[in-house]
Amino acid sequence: MSHSGQQEKCNKPLLENGFFYGTEMYFKIQEKLQYKCNPGYHTPSGGTEDTVQCQPEGWSSQPSCTKKIESCQVPNLHHGSYFTAQQELRLNETLQYRCDEGYHTAGGNTTEEAVCLAHGWSLTPNCTKITCSSLSAIAHGGFYPVKKIYEEGDVVHFFCEEGYSVSEFDLIQCYYFGWHPSPPVCEDVKNKCPPPPFPPHAHITTVRRTYHNGDKIHIQCQSTFEIRGSEEIRCEKGKWTSPPLCFGTVDKQESEAPPPLEEQAAVRASKTYHSEDMKMEQNCTSPPVIKNGGVLGPLLTSYKNGSSVEYGCQRYHSLEGPSTVYCKQGNWTEQPTCLEPCALNVTDMNSNNIELKWRQEELIFLHGDLVEFECKQGYSFLQTTVPSPGRTQCNHGRLKYPQCIMQATAEKCDSPPSIANGALTVPPLTQYDSGSSVQYSCSDYHFLQGSERIYCSEGQWTSPPVCIEPCTLSQSEMEKNNVLLQGFYKNQVHFYHGDYVGFYCKENHFGAETGTTLFQVQCKRGQLAYPRCIERGK
Question: Taking the model in full, what pTM does it have?
Answer without folding.
Answer: 0.29
